[in-house]
Write a structure and sequence with these properties.
Elements (H helix, E strand, L loop, with lengths): L1 H25 L15 E7 L5 E2 L14 H7 L6 E2 L6 E8 L2 E8 L8 E5 L3 E7 L12
Antiparallel strand pairs: 1-4, 1-7, 2-3, 4-5, 5-6
């Protein structure tokens, strides 16, 4: 009788351990740890308030010393200057503000990015904040 009880007790313990192990094997994998939130990054994008071309100035001061456009001056043989509003969809990045002036750089169209940057009166611009935070990288695939 003692042997039967002992056998049943051992069998019950083994069954309980086996059942717990099977439960753990079937339970879903733990959720991945949440990623820290990426800080948001904003830029100020501007457009000219009207369609009148605006010369780019060398410094934030009146009278404006216009920036010479050396490429077109070489081609035309007439002195020409860097001007904003060459195309209607021109977008400017506001780099700095100082004493009512804005230092800007053309970011769209991209063919003007490297050449067209300088100072314009701040009152000539209409600006807004744009979220330029990069999209998060996709999570690695679970194995």
């Amino acid at each position: 009788m003692k042997t039967t009880r002992l056998f049943l007790l051992v069998a019950l313990i083994c069954f309980a351990l086996l059942g717990g192990a099977l439960y753990l094997m079937r339970s879903p994998a733990p959720a991945p740890a949440p990623q820290p939130e990426t800080p948001r990054k904003y830029e100020t994008h501007c457009k000219l308030r009207n369609t009148i071309p605006e010369p780019l100035c060398e410094a934030p001061a009146a009278p404006c010393r216009k920036i010479r456009n050396s490429k077109t001056t070489e081609i035309d043989l007439d002195e020409s200057f860097m001007t904003l509003n060459l195309v209607p969809e021109e977008t400017l990045l506001l780099v700095e503000e100082r004493n009512g002036w804005a230092r800007v750089r053309v970011i769209d169209p991209d063919w003007l990015r490297d050449s067209h940057q300088g100072w314009v009166p701040l009152e000539r611009l209409s600006c807004r904040q744009v979220d330029v935070t990069p999209a998060p990288a996709p999570a690695p695939a679970a194995e």
